[in-house]
Amino acid sequence: MSVEAREKRQPWILLSPALAAVTLLLLVPLLFIVVYSFWLRSAVGPDTQGFHPDNWQRALTDPFYRYILLNTLKIAAITTFFCALLGYPAAYFITRSQGNKLILLLLLMLPFWISYIIRTMSWINILGSSGALNTLLISTGITDSPIQMLYNEATVILGLVHFLLPFMVLNIYVSLDGIDTNLEDAATSLGATRWQAFTQVTLPLSLPGLAAGGLLCFVLGAGTYITPLILGGPRDAMFANLVLEAIITQLNWPMGSALSLLLLIVLGAVVAVYNRYLGMSQLTKGLG
Amino acid sequence: MGWSFIRAYTILVYLFMFLPVAVVVLLSFNQNQFGSFPMTGFSFRWFEALWNNDAVMRAFRTSLILGLLTAAISTTLGVLASLALVRYAVPGKNLITTILIAPILVPEVVLAVALLLFLNWLGIGKSFALLLAGHVIFTLPFVILVVQARLVSIRRDVEEAALSLGASPMQTFFSITLPLLMPAVAAGALFAFTISFDDITGTLFWKPGGVETVPTQIFSMLRNSISPEINALGTVMIVMTVGLPLLGAAIARRLATKRGM
Lengths: 288, 261
Known about the structure:
The structure holds 2 protein chains of 2 kinds.
Chain A: H1 3-36, H2 54-61, H3 63-96, H4 101-113, H5 116-127, H6 132-139, H7 153-177, H8 182-189, H9 194-222, H10 226-231, H11 239-249, H12 253-278, H13 281-287
Helix pairs in contact in A: 1-12, 3-7, 3-9, 4-7, 5-7, 7-9, 7-13, 8-9, 9-12, 11-12
Chain B: H1 3-28, H2 45-51, H3 54-87, H4 93-105, H5 108-121, H6 128-152, H7 156-164, H8 169-198, H9 201-206, H10 214-222, H11 228-258
Membrane topology (chain A): Multi-pass membrane protein
Domain ABC transmembrane type-1 (chain A): 69-274
Keywords (chain A): Cell membrane, Membrane, Transmembrane, Transmembrane helix, Transport
């Protein structure tokens, strides 16, 4: 074999295990559930194969599904908003603090390593009926019996913000850190106040980071089902809970396929819009 | 907005992030048997209870084996793919990168459903192998992102020098490239291990009946109510997933300074 032919073949040999894994374990299964979503569940025996639009019809027209879908997007949007509200000033502080930047960054990375389920359940210790907050309220005499603070939509959002905030801060930090601080100084020397310099120079330049963080918070938030299971009430299901219910509880796999594809399409559309206007490179910057 | 306001705000944000976790650790040493507050005394009894809890110990073994296998496979696949993408002119590089990163772009619940139903259709039901396959596919993109980033900064001349001095491509890889790449390989493996160790979204779909990992074990224990034992388990998890990376980073730093890098 000639050297050139070897040189040509080499990368494909190196790539083939990873490509085969992703193709067999993700791409083909995704195509498969597209087909599967048109099958019908049979009460007994195997599911009926063929092309039946029934699942899709139901997924798109059932008011209950539509309500949960819209509510999921709403919860994800509110979560993203609060992540930005809490995350931006914190990221700004980290970027501009001189001495302990490294420690602040390390502290910021720590939540990534602390288990999602533990961070989620930790709120039960705080907000539960014998939790820290109720104990405090009772011992100070503000109330005599514990207040029910858990298991509602607000606690679901709280748990999601707690889980997703590091993604937001990290993305904004990466963006802010790349901005030359001289730009703000230049603006102030030309007569802008510090606030004007910030809103007209730094903030616009950091918007890509804010958008990347926002996209991650939104997509990850909208795809979750564990947080509502642990911190939500019976009425706080999100769209992924419907998928879990269809697949694991009802064993209605064709319907579960249609519902999970619907979630993929809706979130895919959000990613596509983002990609159209901002490009994916900003996102991998924050992830890497 | 003054600087001191932003500082106070940031301190509050950090408190928001860490206070709930600190309370988990605090309560795991609670003597009290019921509920959580008030604390009645300091005790290790809940850690002892964990040690004697067969289900929890089994879950630990499962998670450990799963995490180690995931890290090994994912890192191997990821390093090979990164080498190809960074060191060779591959046609369609952008498309290939997108395909390899795709598992993090697809919501995990969708990935979980697709993989489960497809393998089931092939006649491969829920099993440890399915769980492992799922974890590998989900962690692979993180390994590739980390390793690729490092590989780009390793100068090609060093490898070419070795090759021109008569080393085979294999020898060059194992004695030049891999040692230089080691920090990223270690980071990628650690990433894969902790992501796998912590995963619950996909795991609940993929795990066969009777098999629990630590997160799914915590999840099923939470169905009753939160107990000091769950908090103790949470504390052990925190020590493992936070302590190990910190230890790893410290060791890596030490090795790096010793070698004068």
